[in-house]
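Example 3.2
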Amino acid sequence: MAGMRAMVLERPGSPLVLRERPVPTPGAGEILLEIAACGVCRTDLHLVDGELPDPKLPIVPGHEIVGRVAELGAGVNGLDVKGLTVKSLVLGERVGVPWLGHTCQACAYCRDGRENLCDAPLFTGYTRDGGYATHVVADARFCFPLTGSSDDAETAPLLCAGLIGWRSYRMAGEGRALGLYGFGAAAHILAQVAAWQGRRVYAFTRAGDVAAQSLAKSLGAVWAGGSEEAPPEPLDAAIIFAPVGALVPLALKAVKKGGRVVCGGIHMSDIPSFPYRDLWEERQIVSVANLTREDAHEFLAIAPQAGVKTTVTRYPLVEANAALADLRQGRIQGAAVLIP
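Structure, written as tokens:
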């Protein structure tokens, strides 16, 4: 097989560089994918900007991968190799690869069904190479067959914005009035699910971001405004997708008694101090960490039922730095996706 191309982060704070590499060989329980599309997530931006600790370097970012199986490692066809029992996949099958790339299956969290909190995980595009490339090797146990939309670019954001968004959404509870702070890739997906379920969605954007507010309303939001504005009614819950700690006190003020504020990102700027009375009356602040495979199976089944359609801007693989810059500057509506 000919070589592969990858956009590589060699030093945090520096641009990605295009590198030619040999195509990797999948090990036991792994598959080699030929990548069709990879979403650009804000977590990738935190990685490139040096805001996440201890990445594997050099690293190929990207964890919203849609690809097709090009090679099977030992154990992927139903054999048991070194304790691996993997659902069979076939050559050419279309699969998705998410952020959670491997867990130990042995720590207390894994044994308790909370593999998202595993003590020894690997993360796609952070501690193992990801999808800003033409090929990637992935643990077959953490890949998901894709049977929904046939558009690879439109499917890619579901693999993180959708999955992490879904976990955040479930943690927000069953309330009917839901606030979404930061109307980017995750919020534009979850707004559609919430509207499909009959909830009232309130979208909070950067002040004056008319385009994002218009997108939110087109996807079912009953109201859209700036993050510092008060919603027309008290919220049952709020999810914060923007990595801005100052939004936490604002969201607490917007939720009613017993309401919950969910912080849905892996990184957030410091939360400023706020009066205890804003937290009182059994309001809660919780964070979301990673995802479980159960989350993925649930969401990938619900997304087509809800008629979820992603809004994407496509970039060639070699323009990964431009996609990251556009995301950093808030110039993207919906999600950015790289096409090899």
